Amino acid sequence: MEKNTDWEKEIYTIYYCYPSVNNSCLLSLQNHILLYIVLWATVIFTVSGNLLVIITISHFKQLHTPTNCLVLSLAVTDLLLGGFVMPPLTVQLVESCWYLGDAFCKLYLSTVIMLCTASVIHLSLISIDRYFAICYPLRYQAKITVSVTVNLILFSWILSAVLGYGIIYLELNLKGIEEFYYQNVKCVGNCVLMQNEVSGLISSLFTFYLPGFTMICIYLKIFSVARRQRNAASRRRERKAAKTLAIVMGVFLLCWSPFFVCNIINPVLNHPAPDILITALAFFGDMNSTFNPLVYGFFYSWFRKALKLIANGKIFQRDSSRTKLYND
């Protein structure tokens, strides 16, 4: 009888995340060096892009406006997503293992929900801000101040934190499915967001469907207003705003739709979706944070000018913060 080849041994050998621990999760040993490179490049781009937005808006005084306060807070949210959420998710996607323990897993999942919620709320607030600025410019200048915007930002962070940490630490996501979770899903080396029907519906409603519906309505309204404008300059301004919102809405829906559709359907069907699929959909949703600097930054000439000043080191010169990036 011929001896088994190394290839055959590899097929029939089962590997675990923690070989010496009972109830350990399975370890994926597939060679995914290219996948690692792509995912880590995405993480680096996400962190770098949002860090540039933060530096630009923080440094240049001309950019200290209510709208840019929202963009700055969004960039902070997306920076945290890129730096805190996406790296562990990258390892999970490639190796299918969680190496950071249960305590950090709870903190991680809570923060994931908080940051994702904060991100989409900020997108909605930016859309609403642009709607009032374009459709009611006089009222906007009188009512929408930096202090009002800061209060909205604080409210969005508080709401996101309450939702994220409340769901996980009170285990609201596991009510009614505890037995199924601990018998069929939970293993050592696993960290996946498991939700019951109610939790999946509520979290999806507030972090995707309502913000998405809001942005669609705002986009349609701005498009309608732009068509009725008579002044040529106003028409150009409205078309540009409508185009930007269309891009924002499209990227948002493209990135998050697969995850949140699964987030509602999976509990209803008694969780047939494998953990790796949920992890992959979550990473794809987080890539909305990768594209946000492109949508809110690289589409504006002032950001491109700021990038040149940063690259040339001119932001370290005296009074560089007063540099005019655009004509008022």
Automatic annotation (TrEMBL):
GO cellular component: plasma membrane
Top-rank taxon, per record: Eukaryota
Location(s), subcellular: Cell membrane
One term of GO molecular function: trace-amine receptor activity
PROSITE patterns registered for this protein in UniProt: G_PROTEIN_RECEP_F1_1, G_PROTEIN_RECEP_F1_2
UniProt keyword annotations, A-Z: Cell membrane, Disulfide bond, G-protein coupled receptor, Glycoprotein, Membrane, Receptor, Transducer, Transmembrane, Transmembrane helix
Membrane topology reported for the UniProt record: Multi-pass membrane protein
PANTHER family: HISTAMINE RECEPTOR-RELATED G-PROTEIN COUPLED RECEPTOR, TRACE AMINE-ASSOCIATED RECEPTOR 11
Family: Belongs to the G-protein coupled receptor 1 family.
Name by which UniProt lists this protein: G-protein coupled receptors family 1 profile domain-containing protein
Provenance organism: Erpetoichthys calabaricus
